[in-house]
Design a protein that fits this description.
heterodimer; A: about 240 residues; mainly alpha; two-stranded antiparallel sheet; globular; B: about 200 residues; alpha+beta; Nuclear Transport Factor 2, Chain: A; 5-stranded antiparallel beta sheet; 7 helices
Chain lengths: ~240, ~200
């Protein structure tokens, strides 16, 4: 629910963050936690608190201004542009999971939207019935049989288990926006994408606040259910209970 | 006499047809009905919580099985609760779900709901009805309902948004509360949550 930066930047911060987290995990990993689904809960809850503060004082206000001031067609174009850039990596991951038909659709979308859709500003392919897919390298590794490695919560990046964190890091290198030059434009784009993604989550904020007895646990469990759903392409086998 | 009999018979047939309404037809009818009302109601569109809850109460809730939903949210702890506690839990959980998600309906603009064909046999008593919410400029959101067959017709016992069950997503939070304060502790926590939401929504 709160995965801002779905595939975007803050690369330096990530590299720095990885080191810090590995260190913190070693320190906090020894503390016994009672939830087997969340072995690093103590660490995660502190990161969650950090993220809540960043969101409250920086990201959310910016996203709100963006949402209220930018006209809908412009917002839609921004979303389409980043969505189009993402179709490349989505196609690669469809192929890596053996879904070659889907991969064909993904690359077809990229081709059509980059040309007819004017650099991806318009999602012409969807109008033509080429459905957008939801794939990433974390899902690919899950399909290959990799374990999730335990749940983690990162500031800015949000909930991501170890497998998805690796998938995210790999995805950064496959992101076309990363190779845009000059660097100032690239950074501007990265920031815009972050705001765009956050703005898209604004309607969910109130629901989560009102629904959750414990927001941290609510977000964690929603993330786990959602990822399972994505890995099984919307048709997860039923869990017995 | 003949006429009266004919009318009675017609009522009986209509009643039976209604009770046997297929689950996917039921979901579509209720959804279309509710969205049509919201589309015409400016108060709801402007965030009138009271009015939207009234609408949901009247149109949607008769098709939900809240005791089953609450049992599903509690998992193993459900059996630890006395019948009276189960009743209290169901009442509080119902309020929590309705307050939260009915309110989300006030955000409805011009999304479209698409009904997916569902595979089911006439003998099925537990089915999944799949829908998708389309909104301009963003990805479709998967919205699925689990229904079970009861004497009074099909009843919804789970709602799944983008793969996230709004019911089982409470499992860990509930078991945490039960561990800390027992079943009564959980009842008190949900009741307190409902109170604070109500106060905030009145502002």
């Amino acid at each position: 629910m709160t995965d801002y930066l779905s595939a975007s930047g803050l690369r330096g911060a990530l590299r720095w963050g990885l080191g810090a987290v590995v260190g913190a995990l070693i320190c906090s990993g020894a503390v016994a936690e009672d939830n087997p689904r969340d072995p690093y809960e103590g660490f995660n809850r502190s990161m969650f608190a950090v993220n809540e503060a960043i969101d409250k004082y920086a990201l959310k206000p910016v996203a709100q201004v963006y949402d209220n001031t930018v006209p809908l067609p412009v917002k839609a174009s921004a979303g389409n542009f980043f969505g189009n850039a993402g179709d490349l990596w989505i196609g690669v991951n469809s192929a890596l999971q053996g879904k070659f038909g889907d991969a064909g659709v993904d690359f077809g979308r990229l081709l059509i939207n980059s040309t007819v859709g004017i650099f991806g500003l318009f999602d012409v392919a969807s109008e033509l019935g080429l459905e957008k897919h939801d794939e990433d390298f974390g899902q690919t590794m899950a399909v290959w049989g990799a374990g999730d490695g335990g749940y983690l919560y990162w500031p800015l990046i949000g909930p991501r288990n170890v497998r998805d964190t690796v998938g995210f890091a790999v995805g950064i290198y496959a992101d076309p926006v990363r190779y845009i030059r000059p660097v100032s434009v690239r950074n501007g784009m990265t920031a815009l994408r972050l705001v765009d993604v956050r703005a898209g989550l604004l309607p969910a904020d109130k629901v989560v606040e009102e629904a959750a007895l414990d927001k941290y646990a609510y977000v964690r469990d929603a993330y786990m259910q959602r990822r399972r759903n994505q890995i099984f392409d919307g048709r997860p086998p039923r869990l017995d209970d | 006499m003949k006429k009266l009999f004919a009318i009675l018979f017609a009522c009986f047939v209509a009643g039976a047809a209604f009770a046997q309404e297929a689950p996917d037809v039921l979901v579509q009818r209720v959804t279309d009905d509710v969205l049509e009302i919201i589309r015409k109601d400016k108060d709801i569109q402007n965030g009138d919580t009271h009015k939207v809850i009234e609408l949901v109460d009247k149109k949607v809730l008769p098709h939900f099985n809240f005791p089953h939903m609450t049992a599903l949210a509690l998992g193993k702890d459900w059996r630890k609760a006395s019948p009276q506690q189960q009743q209290q839990l169901t009442a509080e959980f119902k309020t929590l779900l309705v307050r939260t998600y009915a309110n989300a309906l006030t955000g409805y603009k011009n999304q479209k709901v698409v009904y997916k064909p569902s595979k089911m046999a006439p003998t099925d008593t537990d089915v999944l009805v799949r829908t998708e919410v389309l909104q301009p400029g963003s990805k479709p959101v998967q919205l699925d309902y689990s229904l079970e067959k009861q004497d009074s017709g099909w009843k919804v016992y789970d709602v799944v948004v983008a793969g996230i069950s709004l019911v089982t997503n409470y499992r860990d939070q509930f078991s945490q509360e039960v561990r800390n304060g027992g079943i009564d502790g959980l009842i008190a926590t949900i009741a307190a949550k409902n109170k604070s939401t109500e106060t905030n929504q009145k502002k």
